[in-house]
Amino acid sequence: MHWSYRSRPAAQRSCEVTGKLAHRLTRRPAFTLPLPAARNGNGGRAEPVKSGERHSAHGARHPKKSDGVLRQRVQVRFAFVARERTNYPVRLLCRLMDVSPSGFHDYLRRLAEPSPDADAEVREELRAVHAQSRRTYGRPRLVQALRARNHAVGHKRVARLMAEEGLRGRIKGSQRPRSVKRKDGRPAAENLLDRRFSVDSDQPAWVGDITYLATREGWMYLATVISLQTRQVLGYSLSDRMPDDLVQQAFLNAWAVCPGPPGLLFHSDRGCQYTSGEFGGTVTAHGVVQSMSRRGNCWDNAVAESFFATLKTEEATGVYETKDEARRSIANYIHGFYNPTRLHSTLGFVSPNDYAKQLKAAS
Hints:
elongated
């Protein structure tokens, strides 16, 4: 008859576990109580010890007297409980080792805490990465950047070190744009993109939009073209007025850098610049099909909107002194940071340029 651990009497289970623990610490035969009557034919009572004998028939002494097995220093007993907790309940092990469960869990927590030297090395890298990100990275990107530098860090640890170092990422906020007078143009195109923003989509697509930048010399207008497959800013156009060809120039700049594949969609909102005959003629001449958001639905162009939110969080955070400063700032951000360096969450925390290289190598 097979006796499982749980089906045995509580007293016998405790003594058997105690004997096994004593055996593992002393490497001597384990002390166990005799089996019940059904198994040893003696009514479950232990065989009497003959006069003059100090040990059991198996040669093991009582576990509480086995060379001070259970009198080891507390750290040794905690370590033993940690090794055996996959085999036996922690509370039972703690009771047999004469330690408290709370003390054991404190012991595990102290083991998990990094050493001061390890923190010092991560702190140095954390400050360097945060500075390289222009003090824009928050916890998620800092975690990924540190892991890329072979530091085994978690989100809680990085959050703690950021708080201790006084580091903060920039949080996206809203910036109210000025409205632009609309004029009549061609009818709006259908929403062919239909929010297929995934980088894995079989439909190649670019998205475009316009935003406004404040300078002390007046407003600047920025039009961008972004690839949904790589999240690269392929082209942009920046002007101190809103010319009819602002979005057309951004598209042509993008095409000069990276000619689009066959079947390319160009998605935008229904702004008059995108519904104009001039822009429609340009994209059609390049074999590109237009797609437009539904009326009043900014989420249909969420990727372009998200880039502008990131730009105004990380770079264009206030009012530029001059228009030339704004031009230098935008060029440096796109070509010197966003495309080549900035870790993008949608791309698995690699930069757009690096992701484009991976796609090219895989093709």
